[in-house]
Specification:
Blueprint: E1 25-27, H1 30-38, E2 42-43, E3 50-53, E4 64-65, E5 68-75, E6 82-85, E7 88-91, E8 93-95, E9 98-104, E10 109-113, E11 116-117, E12 119-121, E13 126-134, E14 157-158, E15 169-170, H2 177-185, H3 190-201, E16 212-214, E17 219-231, E18 236-238, E19 242-248, E20 257-258, E21 263-269, E22 274-276, E23 280-286, E24 291-293, E25 297-303, E26 308-310, E27 313-319, E28 323-325, E29 331-337, E30 341-343, E31 348-349, E32 362-364, E33 369-370, E34 375-382, E35 387-388, E36 392-399, E37 405-408, E38 415-418, H4 421-425, H5 427-440, H6 457-478, H7 482-487, E39 489-491, H8 495-506, H9 511-524, E40 529-534, E41 543-546, H10 548-573, H11 581-588, E42 596-599, E43 602-605, H12 606-618, H13 624-636, H14 638-654, H15 663-693, H16 704-711, H17 718-737, H18 739-743
Parallel strand pairs: 2-5, 3-5, 4-8, 5-9, 8-10, 9-11, 9-12, 10-13, 11-13, 12-16, 13-17, 16-17, 17-18, 17-19, 18-20, 19-21, 20-22, 21-23, 22-24, 23-25, 24-26, 25-27, 26-28, 27-29, 28-30, 29-31, 29-32, 32-34, 33-35, 34-36, 35-37, 38-41
Antiparallel strand pairs: 1-3, 6-7, 14-15, 37-38, 39-40, 40-41, 42-43
Length: 745
């Protein structure tokens, strides 16, 4: 059977023209037809379905030249005007084009479009040098829908999180990372999975009457294939090789752009995003204000808002907002990366089919930062803000310590971990993160709520767990045989104290007493440097915890800082500067949530997530817009949630209710919180001073003036100025916050 069939007139595909499209339109006059044909134009039905504006003077047939028209064609105003975008200037009208079954809006410029079929074009659109631009009657524009008569196997799924496809989600125009996260993680709830499909299909037509859409003020030039594409207003597309079955979301406030050599198939591109320079995206979702460039490959993945990916490959990933990944050798596969992450050059994060099937994966909390040339074995999981130093990690990892530094040890196969490393040695990065992500959020409309503070309930719950874990491991340390204890001790400023606590540990009468003994040892010997063995952090060889006493101390300070910061935020929301006993009663009356979920960047209590699921399964929530409204309600109550959790954390640290605090307790709390605030400032200044005072930072400059011209003067650093001002404000607010409570002691 031949590949190409010759159709008779009866067999030609016919499309019924919607009568609403020709309101305010009329057929051509004989004189107009004469002008059109004299200008080299033709119609396969003798201009019987060629409609133009009925307003006198709005159709100038002389502006249509050397073009062929098939089926119906509906034109808006065509007058002697010129459209300009950057250096491209085109006169309004149609020339050297083939147009079939299409509706074209007012004042459009169409030149050298070799084949335009089944499209509705908006107003002031520029189409120039396009090989093929067509739309099938069953197109879904990248959404995971089915049309009448289509089998389930025809549905397009996005295989995020795992190569085996069993975490796949359906794309839809309004999808945000939170939706994808909940859909991909709670796979054991089959009823919920079915409801998610229903939410996606709600209100969507199944009829085979789809047409392509190009909205107002869109410019498309020098492209090869554009098929089954919907483009929102103010988008700019130039030099694309292939765009198929996609939606390009764009607006005047958040214009999107697609550039040279790009191929995009089966997906959704978010508002204000840019894809250019030979980038490829297949089965994808790209969030708001993202950049995909320089040959990057995005396959079966969701790239969250405010992210930049260049020169690298991403397969089967769910990536939360504020993700940075550059350099040609970077590789990311089968992962859920929870935002504010930075993947260094040559970091190889790939499952490599470590099991008997391609079903391994990696999950990393906020702030994941693998070092240069680091590689990992799947399955692995990381707490928030884990910094992985350069090296090859040969076994599966389960790093539960947030804000830690990890490093492989080739000699014994263990992984070395310094808990609270960022607070001990890199406070500048933590402080800067809090500010920089807010400044980089260029979204005009913010549907996905994003927590940018490193110290939020999701990270704090990990800190709370780590404090408990360090105490548990210290129990084991105190009960080690003498020689083993010596081998695990690097520096002990008080040997007698250690022996006393070892004796107490051996004679402890209960697990609770032993736990308190280990806790007291960490409190009373904060300068001791010893090592702990944690067998749950790495398969086979385990991990060695360095500086646990110092990490324990920093974790506790950070917990206090978080608690006070949340209470301060709560009082400000009530237009107050201080907190009294009545306020404490109010906060205590709020629901307490101690388990938190990072849902696509928004931190939500786990109980609220379960409440959402119940409403979806009951049918109370039946469309995604309602789900997003639920997220917004959680966000509006977030300050209250945090305040209640803050009291819980503070009271857990001190082992008593805050109403029972004495003067010494408040003094201790205030002292530690003020120390953290001041340490943030001083550490930041010290870190930046090294860039100015270090000898090797000056060797490439001829003199100090040249150096100042290139990197700027320290005293002019805008970030440090803002930090100093905010630190002074915080210190002042701290005194006011607990002043009424102190008076009552």
């Amino acid at each position: 059977m031949p590949m190409i069939k010759i159709l008779t007139e009866e067999e030609k595909t016919s499309v019924v023209l919607d009568i609403n499209l020709i309101k305010g339109k009329r057929l051509l006059t004989r004189d107009e037809i004469t002008v059109l044909e004299r200008n080299g134009n033709s119609s396969d039905n003798d201009w019987k379905e060629f409609y133009v504006s009925e307003v006198q003077g709005e159709f100038n047939p002389s502006l249509i030249r050397n073009s062929d028209f098939h089926g119906f064609v509906v034109l808006g105003s065509v007058g002697k005007l010129t459209l300009k975008y950057h250096d491209l200037e085109l006169p309004v009208g149609i020339s050297r084009s083939v147009i079939r079954n299409s509706v074209i809006g007012n004042e459009c410029a169409i030149q050298n479009v070799s084949y335009l079929d089944n499209y509705h074009i908006g107003n002031h659109v520029m189409l120039f040098n396009i090989s093929e631009m067509s739309c099938t009657r069953h197109s879904k524009f990248g959404e995971g829908l089915l049309k009448d008569g289509e089998k389930e196997s025809a549905r397009i799924w996005i295989g995020i999180g795992n190569e085996n496809g069993n975490r796949s989600v359906l794309a839809f125009e309004d999808i945000i990372p939170a939706d994808a996260y909940l859909w991909s993680r709670y796979r054991d709830d089959q009823e919920l999975m079915e409801k998610f499909v229903q939410l996606t299909e709600y209100g969507k037509s199944k009829e085979l009457n789809t047409f392509g859409i190009i909205e107002d003020d869109v410019v498309i030039k020098n492209c090869s294939i554009i098929k089954d594409v919907r483009v929102k207003s103010c988008a700019y597309i130039k030099g694309a090789l292939k765009l198929k079955n996609i939606t390009v979301l764009s607006s005047e406030d958040e214009p999107s752009q697609i550039g040279e050599g790009v191929e995009m198939v089966n997906g959704i591109m978010g508002y204000g995003s840019h894809v250019f320079y030979q980038a490829i995206a297949v089965r994808f979702i790209i969030g708001r204000n993202c950049q995909l460039k320089y040959g990057a490959r995005l396959l079966n993945s969701f790239l969250g808002d405010n992210s930049t990916v260049s020169c690298c490959e991403l397969l089967n990933n769910l990536i939360f907002p504020f993700h940075e990944q550059h350099h040609n050798s970077s590789f990311l596969i089968a992962s859920t990366i929870m935002g504010q992450s930075n993947i260094a050059s040559a970091a190889t994060i790939g499952s490599n089919h470590n099991s008997r099937s391609p079903d391994c994966e990696l999950v990393a909390g906020r702030g994941f930062w693998p070092g240069l040339c680091s590689d990992f074995k799947f399955d692995s999981k990381f707490a928030s803000f884990v910094l992985a130093s350069k090296g090859s990690y040969q076994n599966e990892l389960n790093i539960t310590y947030p804000f830690s530094l990890i490093s492989p040890c080739p000699q014994d196969g263990t992984v070395h971990i310094i808990p609270a490393y960022w607070f001990l040695y890199n406070m500048f990065a933590i402080v800067r993160n809090k500010f920089k992500f807010k400044s980089r959020d260029k979204r005009f409309i913010k549907i996905q709520n994003i927590e940018t503070d490193p110290l939020a309930p999701d990270t704090i719950q990990e800190v709370v767990d780590s404090v408990g874990r360090l105490i548990t491991l210290t129990e084991r340390y105190l009960k080690l045989p003498v020689e083993d204890c010596k081998n695990m001790t690097l520096f002990n400023p008080n040997p007698q104290l250690l022996e006393e606590f070892r004796d107490k540990a051996v004679h402890a009468s209960s697990p609770e007493e032993l736990h308190q003994i280990a806790k007291d040892y960490l409190h009373q010997n904060p300068d001791a440097k010893f090592m702990l063995s944690d067998d749950r952090c790495q398969k086979k060889f385990g991990a060695i915890i360095y500086k646990p006493a110092q990490g324990y101390k920093e974790y506790r300070k950070i917990l206090k800082y978080f608690g006070v910061q949340c209470l301060m935020e709560w009082t400000l929301s009530k237009n107050s500067e201080s907190i009294d006993k009545e306020d404490l009663k109010t906060i205590h009356s709020l629901p307490l949530y101690t388990k938190w979920i990072n849902a696509g960047g928004q931190v939500i209590p786990e109980e609220k997530i379960n409440e959402l699921f119940d409403e979806i399964k009951s049918g109370k929530i039946f469309e995604w817009k309602q789900v997003h409204k639920f997220y917004d309600v959680c966000e509006s109550e977030y300050v209250d949630y945090k305040a209640r959790y803050a009291l819980f954390v503070i009271e857990k640290l001190y082992g008593k209710k805050i109403r029972d605090f004495d003067t010494e307790d408040f003094e201790d709390l205030s002292k530690d919180v003020a120390f953290v605030s001041l340490n943030m400032l001083e550490s930041s200044i010290s870190a930046r001073e090294k860039d100015y005072t270090d000898f090797f930072r000056s060797i490439t400059f001829r003199n100090q003036k040249e150096k100042d011209a290139v990197i700027g003067a320290l005293e002019n650093n805008d970030f440090l100025k803002k930090l100093q001002a905010s630190t002074e404000e915080f210190t002042c607010a701290l005194d006011k916050l607990i002043k009424p409570l102190r008076k009552n002691q």
